Amino acid sequence: MAHLWIQGDAGWDARKLTGRQFALAASEIPRVAVGETLVGRSGDEAAWLISADAGGSPVWALVASQKSGVRINGRVPPAGLCVLGERDEIRIEGGPRYFFSRELLATVEEFPGAERTVFCGRCRQPIEPGAPGVYCPNCGIWYHQTAELPCWTYAETCSCGKPTDLDAGFSWVPEED
Ligand SMILES: [Zn+2]
Ligand SMILES: [Zn+2]
User: Fold this and answer.
1) Mean pLDDT per 10-residue interval, the chain, length 177 residues
2) Stated pTM of the model
3) 111-136 in b/e burial notation, b at 16+ Cβ within 10 A?
4) Which of 53, 71, 101 represents a domain boundary (last residue)?
5) How far away, in angstroms, is 57 Cα from ligand 1 center?
6) β-pairing, 21-25 with 38-39?
7) Which structural domain, as residue segments, surrounds residue 137?
């Protein structure tokens, strides 16, 4: 799931883009109501983030009016439209900075099951539906993750190289000004 880095008083904060449409406003203090999809004061919108589902991986586009003063990576988007890419900086004149990112975190979740038996990427044994496991967000392989079978955290990295530390957080965080 994509997220938006928002710069606040306590540093950078990653907010999941759980809805399909977000407003970005030029207010001093960014406020996000997740689910209601609003950043900043209502009526103060400078740009909109809109998602289009392209076969399971949503594409996020920013739409801004020409007079809004919105810049993507320092440039005014042509025709006020920009499809967002990894680590794109969104800046609103007189307002906060944002960064767009698609980095996913590995978390322990229940294995939902699949049509065919899925085998663990570490121990090669089947993973039962409902069993706690980790889905590698980098390569898409499932691993057991229980007290008896800590297959995800057994090694320092997944076979694809993704670190398996469950508390590591995001590998990329925007730099402070
Ligand atoms: Zn296993
Ligand atoms: Zn992996």
Assistant:
1) 83 83 67 49 73 79 85 93 95 84 91 94 97 93 97 96 90 84
2) 0.73
3) beeeeeebebbbeeeebeeebebbbb
4) 101
5) 27
6) parallel
7) 105-177
Q: Which amino acid is at 41?
A: R
Q: How many domains does the chain have?
A: 2
- Residue 1 alpha carbon to ligand 1 centre in Å: 25
Cα–Cα distances (Å) from 137 to 106, 110, 143, in that order, read 6, 15, 12
Beta-carbon neighbour count of residue 66 at 10 Å?
10
pLDDT at 42 (0 to 100): 56
What pLDDT shows up at residue 137?
A: 87
Distance of CA 5 to the CA centre of its chain: 9
Q: How many CB atoms lie within 10 A of CB 93?
A: 11
Q: How far does residue 152's CA lie from ligand 1's centre (Å)?
A: 7
